[in-house]
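From the shared-data thread, chain only:
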Amino acid sequence: MTLDSKQILVFGVLTENSMGFQIAKSVQERGGDVIVVNAPGRPSSIMSRIVGRLPKPPVDCLSADITKDEDLAELATSVDKHWQHLDGLVHAVAFAPGDALGGNFLNTPFESVATAMHVSAYSLKSLTAHLLPLLEAADRASVVSLTFNATVAWPIYDWMGPVKASLEATNRYLARYLGERGIRVNAVDSGPITTMAGKGIPGFETLAEAWPEQAPLGWDTSDASPVADTVAFLLSDDARAMTGQVLHVDGGYSAVGA
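Structure, as tokens:
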């Protein structure tokens, strides 16, 4: 599998442990070039140190609020200054207010649910739509997002469960509408990884501790590379006939019972 000369935008590079960083690293190791994007608020000096740990410098390091159309429009303009087409787009973004997690499901106000839905699900459509002209200009572009098995109700995950179910449905609808334009849209269902986002979920350790024992292949919650490498595969031409799918990369946990 190669990503030679592929031009990939990765939205969600926050720290070296973030899934976005690991995906950008995997893309570069396979010959691709990346533009990395993070949410506003991270000092440029910190981001410079973080992206400096990638195998090679990114083409650019940008920031944008994924919930604001004006920010996404400016992002598309910035990308267009570097590239005339976009081979791949990675959505590695998720957030929920604290009162939408940790066992508070019955008491979570709609405003918190709406925030989680906007940032973590609707934004996949928004980001893709704003970058659509660049994606259409490529040959067989690919859009990939990250999810967490939304077919069951997890303890402590609460409203992020319905939000991820919405993300997976959005993935399918984008695949339906963009297939005729030659754009593939897929998602990767990851087992629990110890990232900043994971640590932000109250009781995350309890959810994650069963994985290594129950997953048939085992699972290392500190190793994001299996997930990142699968995303790289979906960005490659090797996955050219796949769209609308959710690939489970969880050591087989989702395939077995208790």
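The first helix runs from residue 19 to 29.
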